[in-house]
Amino acid sequence: MLPKENLLAALRLEVPERIPTFEWFIDAAVTVPLCGSADPIDAAERLDIDAVNIRADYAKKWKDDKTFIDEWGSEKRLTDDVLPAAMGHPLADLAAQKNYGFPKPDAPERFKTLERAVKQYNGKRGVVLNLRDGFSDMRDILGYENALMGMVLDKPNFTALLNRVVDYNLTLAELAVKRFGIEVIATTDDVCNAKGTLMSPKTYREILYPAFKRVIEGYRSLGCFVIKHCDGNVLPLLDLWLEAGISCLNPVDPGGGLDMGVMKQHYGSKICLMGNIDCTGNLCSGTPEQVAEEVRVCIAKGGPGGLIVSSSNTIHHGVKPENYKAMLNELRRSIR
Length: 336
Known about the structure:
Blueprint: H1 3-11, H2 28-35, H3 40-46, E1 51-55, E2 60-62, E3 67-70, E4 75-77, E5 85-88, H4 112-121, E6 126-131, H5 135-142, H6 144-153, H7 155-180, E7 184-188, E8 192-193, E9 196-197, H8 201-221, E10 225-229, H9 235-244, E11 248-250, H10 260-267, E12 272-277, H11 282-285, H12 288-302, E13 307-311, H13 321-332
Parallel strand pairs: 1-6, 6-7, 7-10, 10-11, 11-12, 12-13
Antiparallel strand pairs: 2-3, 3-4, 4-5, 8-9
Helix pairs in contact: 2-13, 5-6, 6-7, 7-8, 8-9, 10-12, 12-13
C-alpha cells in the first residue's frame, strides 16, 4: 500500500500494511536535524510520513519582525515553537458581528500550500485539509473570554456569528474537494482541558453542538473522512461527536486520562483512533527506547486496524529529534 492508502484504510477501520502516522504540525527544530528540511511538505516526504496537514493560507501584514496581523484581523506573534501566540482579536463587541467581514474563501492564494502538497505527492501521500468546526474560529475572532461569555450572555449574536463561521468553513471544504480532490478533513477545535469541558456539557449541547453537527455532516456529504481534534478529557462530549458523524478522534490524550485500550474497547468499532504518544513525556525527556516502547504499547492496545499513531498534540520545539525518529522507526516495524 502507498502511504495515502494506509491512512485511508485506517480511517475505514481496516488493517493497513503498516500503521499510518502524521502530525498537525512538526517544528522545524525537529525536522531540520532529521532530514535537513524546514518545509513540512518536503519533510514529510523525506521522513516517509503518511500524510501532511495543511491549513488555508492567509496574508500577513507585519508590524515588526515577529508580530503580524492576518486577514481575519487577528494579531499574532511568532514564538520559538511552530504555532504563533495570539496577541489581539478583531471583534471586541459581539453585537457588531454583522459588520465583521471574513476573508474571501476563494482568494487566489487561499490554497497555495495545499495545491503544492497535492502536486508534489501526486497521490502517494495523504493531504489533510485542516479546517474548523466552530468554537476555535469564535475564540480567534472574539478572544477566549468574550467567546465563552458571549455564548451565554448574547446567544443570538453568538449563534449568528457561529453559523457564519460554519458556512465559511463549508465553503472552503467544497472548494478544496472540487479543485484538489481532498478526501480527509481535520478540525482542530479545542473545547476541553484535562479535567473536562471548557463550558458545561449542557451549554455545549444547546449552543455549539447544532453548528458542530451541521459542519461535520457538511464535510461528510462532500465525501470526506473527518478527524476531530480536541485535547483533554473529551468523554463528556464524545457520544455527541459520534452522533454527528466524525470518522476519527485525535489525540486520545493521555494527559486527559484517556487510555488507548479502554478507548479501543468502547469506540474502536465505531471510529478510528489517533494518538496517543505523550508529547509532554518521553518524546521530550525520555530515551529513544522508551519512546519505541510507548509506540509498541499504543499499537498493541489500539491496533492493528482503525489506528493512526501520532503525538498527543504536535511534534513541538521541545521534542528531541532522536525520539521522534525512534517513534517513526518503530512504526516502520509495524508492517505486516
